[in-house]
């Protein structure tokens, strides 16, 4: 038996707690990122010098957000990182002014289905 405990195809192994510095919650303000919250790069908040000081995972998330607005769940899948890690890293990016996050509309504030059906029926009657 050789000394390696993972195969060559696994690539570099970095534990999630190493990426977040042992943190499990995003930022000092306790921001909570829903899976469907939308993340976009803040064009005013990102400069190359500040970005160069970020870790590779932070820069990877910024790169994914640059091409298009993405949800937290999409970022986790595309970056191949656990959602908890992505939430912590996004908290760092939000605190640094690198990204903007738009939170989803709470279900209680969405229009009632009955009202939507009445509107559709009214439009069909026209």
Number of strands: 3
SS class: mainly alpha
Indicate the overall shape.
elongated
User: How many helix segments?
Assistant: 6
Fill in the keyword field for this structure.
mainly alpha, 8% strand, 126 residues, single chain, 44% helix
Question: What topology emerges from the helices and strands here?
Answer:
Layout: H1 16-19, E1 38-41, H2 48-52, H3 56-67, E2 70-71, H4 72-79, H5 83-95, E3 99-102, H6 113-125
Helix pairs in contact: 3-5, 4-5
Description:
- The protein is mostly helical and 126 residues long.
- The protein contains six helices and three strands; from the N terminus they run αβααβααβα.
- The protein has helices spanning 16-19, 48-52, 56-67, 72-79, 83-95, 113-125; strands at 38-41, 70-71, 99-102.
In short:
This protein has helices at 16-19, 48-52, 56-67, 72-79, 83-95, 113-125; strands spanning 38-41, 70-71, 99-102.
């Amino acid at each position: 038996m050789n000394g390696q405990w993972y195969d060559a195809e696994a690539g570099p192994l970095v534990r999630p707690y190493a990426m977040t510095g042992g943190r499990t919650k995003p930022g000092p303000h306790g921001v909570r990122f829903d899976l469907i919250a939308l993340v976009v790069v803040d064009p005013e908040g990102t400069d190359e010098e500040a970005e160069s000081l970020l870790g590779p995972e932070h820069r990877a998330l910024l790169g994914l957000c640059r091409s298009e607005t993405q949800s937290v769940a999409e970022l986790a899948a595309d970056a191949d990182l656990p959602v908890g890690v992505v939430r912590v890293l996004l908290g760092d990016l939000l605190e640094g002014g690198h990204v903007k996050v738009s939170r989803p509309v709470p279900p209680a504030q969405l229009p009632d289905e009955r009202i939507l059906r009445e509107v559709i029926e009214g439009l069909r009657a026209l």
